[in-house]
UniProtKB/TrEMBL annotation:
Domain (ABC transmembrane type-1): residue spans on this chain: 68-291
PANTHER family according to UniProt: L-CYSTINE TRANSPORT SYSTEM PERMEASE PROTEIN TCYL, MEMBRANE COMPONENT OF AMINO ACID ABC TRANSPORTER
UniProt superkingdom: Bacteria
Keywords annotated in UniProt: Amino-acid transport, Membrane, Transmembrane, Transmembrane helix, Transport
Protein name: Amino acid ABC transporter permease
Pfam name, any one: BPD_transp_1
Family as reported in the entry's similarity comment: Belongs to the binding-protein-dependent transport system permease family.
């Protein structure tokens, strides 16, 4: 007698799955569509926008020059010096020297506590510390001129002098104020990025003969950029918008100042504010694209980002074919 063949287990039948309905989603889509159409109608047909005047104000040569030489130039220079100062402050904060740590903490505490509008307003009147009747802001023998008289010296010991009121209330004062404030924020961002790198990276670099500074530049900072770049991009966008605060100086070469003057002369305040908004939207969009590119570049080798559908399918086949 032959043994009965083993019966194969019954396979489950086709599951008749009913998709879950989400009526709330459709209601939300309808509400958002109605609100969007209402907003579009308001923007296009409300006479308060006065679009012909908006585009006319945007195309003024003084406005375009203010956007390039005021808004963009101040943003680039303030971020350049702010990033350099922030990295130096972060390195000082992580130093073993208590004096360097204390100076870095004091600087960060002071400039993070002062609003930028207040700081720029102070920069506009900082020339009071260096009046012209006492030589203005000069390079040479420091301290008061009475000190020279006490030593019995005579003659002009100043090598270079400049009107402090003109200096601090112009483009230089704007860049100094914005960069000084930005350095305090970048110090914390850079410190967080440096701390995100494993300490063994520094120890390995020192073991192969690198100095601490060289190891920081070649090993630690390139890896820390993955953490530093995203908030730095946000700070750059915030700096671009904060250039509108230069109206407190006032800086006549800045775009928002010029548009405000046009609005005050023509009594068309709302259209010029719309023009300024369009300028900031365009510039911010370009910066966001650049930030996304830098994030992808410095994020290479981290995570499992898949770029195309073919790569997703290939990964799926590899997983399904593995045993």
């Amino acid at each position: 007698m032959t043994e009965p063949a083993a019966r194969e287990p019954e396979r489950p039948g086709i599951i008749d799955a009913v998709p879950v309905r989400h009526p709330g989603r459709y209601v939300t889509i309808v509400v958002l569509a109605v609100l969007g159409l209402m907003f579009l109608h308001l923007v296009l047909f409300n006479p308060a926008f006065n679009w012909p005047f908006v585009f006319e104000a945007m195309n003024q040569s003084i406005v375009i020059e203010g956007f390039i030489k005021g808004t963009l130039l101040c943003t680039v220079l303030a971020m350049f010096f702010g990033v350099i100062g922030g990295v130096l402050l972060a390195i000082m904060r992580l130093s073993d020297n208590p004096i360097l740590r204390g100076v870095s903490w004091l600087y960060t505490w002071f400039f993070r506590a002062i609003p930028r509008l207040v700081l720029l307003t102070i920069m506009g009147v900082l020339g009071i510390l260096f009046p012209l009747n006492r030589g203005g802001l000069s390079l040479g023998v420091p301290f008061d001129w009475k000190l020279i008289e006490w030593f019995g010296l005579s003659g002009d010991w100043r090598f270079y002098s400049v009107d402090a009121n003109t200096l601090f209330s112009g483009l230089v004062g704007a860049i100094i104020g914005l960069a000084a404030s930005e350095a305090a924020y970048m110090a914390e961002i850079a410190r967080a990025g440096i701390n995100s790198v494993d300490k063994g990276q520094m120890e390995a670099a020192r073991a192969v003969g690198m100095s601490r500074g060289l190891a920081m530049r070649r090993v630690v900072l390139p890896q820390a950029m993955r953490v530093i770049v995203p908030p730095t991009g946000n700070e750059t966008i915030a700096m671009l918008k904060d250039t509108s605060l230069l109206i407190a100086l006032p800086l006549s070469t800045e775009m928002f100042f010029q548009l405000s003057q046009i609005g005050a002369r023509t009594f068309q305040l709302f259209p010029v504010f719309v023009a300024a908004t369009l300028y900031y939207l365009i510039a911010t969009s370009v910066l966001m694209i650049g930030q996304a590119y830098l994030e992808r570049r410095f994020g290479r080798g981290f995570g499992t980002t898949v770029k195309s559908t073919k790569e997703k399918a290939a990964i799926g086949l590899q997983i399904g074919g593995s045993k």
